[in-house]
Structure formats: structure tokens, C-alpha cells
Amino acid sequence: MSTPRPFGRALCAMITPFTADDTLDLDQARRLAAHLVAEGCDGLVLSGTTGESPTTTDAEKAALVRAVREEVGPDIHVVAGVGTPSTRHTVELARQAEEAGANGLLVVSPYYSRPPQDAVEAHFRTVADATGLPVMLYDIPGRAGVRIGTESLLRLAEHDRIVAVKDCTNDLLAATKVIGRTSLAYYSGSEETNLPLYAVGAAGYVSTVANVVPALMRAPLDAHDKGDVAEAARLNHLTLPLSELMMASGLPGTVTVKALLGIPVREPLRPASQDQVAALQKAYDNLVH
User: Which residues lie below 8 Å from residue 273, measured CB to CB, with a gap of 6+?
Assistant: First the structure.
């Protein structure tokens, strides 16, 4: 049985570029989107965690979708992050994203209030019912404060428009169970699980590190698809030092990406220090040269 890939295989959790005066930089967003696609990204996920969605306005989110869609054309997947703690607001953002040109929705568990599982399920169903777009559930308990339980995922998989999961649980056992029992397309949301999840039937990944090395993040999956698992493992190991520094150094991935790209973050995030930028640049240089 082939693995379903409703949003492609190699997706980038794209940053949201800002200018020095903290306004949305749509020109930079277009340039970055075009570059990422040229370097092998099948899709772009906008306004997620890496996209600083808690600090962008509804109007900025819509403008970003429109600009990126216009830039990359109709054949590239543009998935809009629409999750908020409020079901009503999430529905509004979902409809706005559909109108702006997104062809998929990323919906995180309703965070902060920590609702029980039946309420989490109801939230996702309500959002999925609100538009005609396919939905990728975003399971990131470390940020949301609530996990999407395995039994909840099995039930949610019965909804026609709930087609995928971005998995940031690092729970390979639970993910493997759901992959084996449903048609949900699993996307790794943590670089260290990109290849392990892919090997057990995941569809691909949604990567923060892909903002800076998109082709190198895709390479292990390409090798795996060719049946060369040893080469896939070798290529995966090559990217680990940079991925670890970008994602597990104590700084948010948004900060480390923007440090390498020279793009401002929005408060409450703060830019990396000079020493941190130097360490990131060294790891990047070691990988690409």
C-alpha cells in the first residue's frame, strides 16, 4: 500500500519575514518562497510555530498566504496555520485562509486552556467542517499543553477532510500505531524523527531547518526512496549537528533560522546573540562547504 501524501513530502515550516521596523515583508516572503520551492520543497507551511503565528495579525496571515500563493503558483502546496485557543477564531482564520488561496490548513490543538480529549476532537471537527480544505492536525503537546490522544486520532481519521498529522510528540510507537491503523498522512515535525518516521510509513516532514538547507533536508528521503537506506542514514547524520544547534540549543527555531538569514524576529522573541550567530554560522558552513 502506498503512503498517502496529500501535501507532498518535503515541506518547509516557513518563517514570516519582517522589516527592520517590524512590518510584514511580503517581498522577502515571495523571494524566500520561490527559493525554497526551487530547492526542492513540495509545500510551504505558513503561520505555524516557526512563522510566529501568535504575534501576527489576521490581516497579516491572509496577506502572507496571498503573496506566497501568487509567487509559487497553483502546483505547490500552501498550508496555512490557523490554530488558536478559540474554536470560533480558528474557524474564522480557516475561512480566511481558504479565500486567500491556501489549499490546506494546519490546526494545532487548542492551547493554554488544556481541554479534555472529547473537546479537542470537537474542536478539530468543527474547524474541518468550516471549509472545503483538507486539514493537517498539529500535535505539539510541549507548546499546546495537551496532546491529541491515540484513540482521538483514530476517531478523527474518519473525518473526510482530516487527512494528515504534523507530529511533534517524538513518540515513535504511538505514531506507528496510527500510521498502521488509519490513512492519516504523518509528517514529522521534529528534524530528528524525519527519517525514522519516514521509514515506518510517514508521508514526509514539515521542517524548520529547511528554511536554510532545504535540499539537504530532503536528501535522506530521496535516498530512502531509491532503496539506499545506508546512504539515507549517512545523509541524515550529516544534517544533525546543524539541526541540533538550531532546534535544541535553548533558542526557538524561529530565532535560529532568522539569525542565519539576517531577518528580524518579533517580540517577545529576541534575536540571537553575536556568539550564538557565530556558532550557527560555523555549523552551517561546515555542512554546506
Answer: none
